[in-house]
């Protein structure tokens, strides 16, 4: 079966790819849940999950949550099983080569097909001549477009791991997924497939929406959604949680936003039980992308780039990955319940 993936310069990798031997114990990262941790090592069956819970019951929180920094045992025999590549129903290798993700992350192994049939248009905010909001961290400048782009790339990769079709509406030819804290500012991003991004804000937004709507027509009848990821700019002292906008008349957009919001609410409750999550879902039909996208759209603000506490949400690569993982969980919940 042909893998349906639509990222610039993607191609199928011929021949199997073997991962390194899986360790018997692993350390939980920020944003990890049991399923996310197991997926990282190719352990996706219900039996793997049940074994994991049994093995680590003493180190789990209420609701089987993980504790960041704590070591967990993987299911017996997992190391041997995880050395084999994931395979499709026809037993052919299910590994993609995705140069857009950079050399370290370009090989994407398909873990399962739970998102097959879903089509996503991912739009990282700003880019090209417009870096968006600029924050300061010591002597460093933090650009909204660089951090939004990194989270968006990570989300695209997770979606691909589960069989979704993904279009990156904004693409950088050489950045890839980056694990550094300070992401270098550049201006070479383009709009899919290879259009120069205009300086005009309206021109940028029109360019992206036109491309997304053309692709929407091509995938007519499929489950299609658009996500726009941004980093907000507010006063330095204002700490904000991730929040979401949808079109007032889009029931599908509202449901998608609420499904992602529910994941964030649950994750915060587990990871920071002494801190309430204040992110919310609201209608904002005036946003150009939300108003003009043919696919139901959700506009996300990931935090305040000027706030020192919010900056930790972006500066740490593990936190950027956690954001991507949590958004994916919300997308999966919405797709399953469609």
Account of the 3D structure:
- There is one protein chain.
- With 338 residues, the protein is α/β, with parallel strands linked by helices.
- It folds into two domains: 25-82, Membrane-bound Lytic Murein Transglycosylase D, Chain A (Roll), CATH 3.10.350; 95-336, Zn-dependent exopeptidases (Aminopeptidase), CATH 3.40.630.40.
- The protein has helices at residues 34-40, 46-55, 78-82, 144-161, 201-218, 251-271, 288-292, 308-315, 317-336, and strands at 11-12, 25-27, 71-73, 95-97, 107-109, 118-124, 134-137, 140-143, 165-168, 170-171, 190-191, 195-196, 223-232, 243-246, 281-283, 297-304.
- Strand 7 and strand 8 (140-143) form a beta hairpin.
Could you give a short description of this structure?
The chain has 338 residues and is α/β, with parallel strands linked by helices. The chain has 9 helices and 16 strands.
In CATH, the architecture of the largest domain is: 3-Layer(aba) Sandwich
Number of beta strands: 16
| Spatial extent as radius of gyration | 19 Å
Oligomer: single chain
The string of secondary-structure elements, in order, is EEHHEHEEEEEHEEEEHEEHEHEHH
Regions with pLDDT < 50 over 5+ consecutive residues?
1-22, 78-93
Instruction: Please summarize the sheet with the most strands.
Output: 6 strands, mixed
The side-by-side strand order for the widest beta sheet comes to 9-6-13-16-14-15
Q: Total number of helical segments? A: 9
Dominant shape: globular
- The secondary structure category is alpha/beta
- Total domain modules: 2
The share of residues in extended strands comes to: 15-25%
Relative helix content: 25-40%
Q: How is the CATH topology of the largest domain named? A: Aminopeptidase
């Amino acid at each position: 079966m042909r893998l349906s993936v639509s990222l610039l310069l993607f191609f199928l990798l011929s021949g199997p790819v073997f991962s390194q031997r899986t360790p018997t114990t692993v350390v939980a990262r920020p944003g990890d849940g049991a399923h996310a941790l197991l997926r990282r090592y190719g352990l996706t069956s219900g039996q793997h999950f049940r074994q994991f819970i049994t093995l680590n019951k003493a180190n789990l929180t209420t609701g089987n949550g993980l504790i960041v920094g704590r070591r967990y045992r993987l299911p017996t025999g997992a190391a041997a099983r995880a050395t084999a590549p994931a395979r499709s129903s026809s037993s052919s290798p299910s590994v993609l080569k995705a140069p857009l993700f950079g050399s370290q992350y370009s090989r994407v192994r398909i873990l399962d097909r739970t998102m097959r049939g879903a089509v996503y248009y991912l739009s990282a905010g700003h880019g090209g001549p417009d870096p968006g909001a600029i924050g300061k961290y010591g002597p460093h400048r933090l650009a909204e477009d660089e951090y939004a782009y990194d989270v968006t790339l990570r989300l695209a990769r997770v979606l691909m791991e589960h069989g979704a079709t993904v279009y990156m509406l904004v693409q950088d030819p050489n950045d890839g997924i980056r694990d550094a804290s300070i992401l270098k500012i550049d201006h070479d991003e383009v709009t899919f497939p290879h259009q120069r991004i205009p300086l005009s804000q309206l021109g940028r937004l029109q360019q992206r929406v036109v491309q997304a709507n053309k692709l929407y027509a091509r995938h007519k009848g499929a489950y299609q959604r658009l996500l726009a990821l941004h980093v907000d700019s507010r006063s330095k002292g204002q700490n904000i949680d991730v929040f979401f906008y949808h079109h007032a008349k889009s029931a599908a957009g509202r449901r998608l936003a609420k499904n992602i919001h529910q994941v964030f609410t649950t994750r915060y409750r587990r990871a920071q039980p002494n801190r309430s999550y204040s992110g919310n879902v609201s209608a904002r039909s005036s946003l150009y992308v939300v108003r003009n996208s043919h696919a139901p759209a959700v506009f996300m603000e990931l935090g305040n780039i000027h706030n020192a506490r919010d900056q930790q949400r972006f500066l740490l690569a593990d936190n950027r990955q956690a954001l991507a993982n949590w958004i994916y969980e919300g997308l999966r919940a919405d797709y399953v319940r469609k």
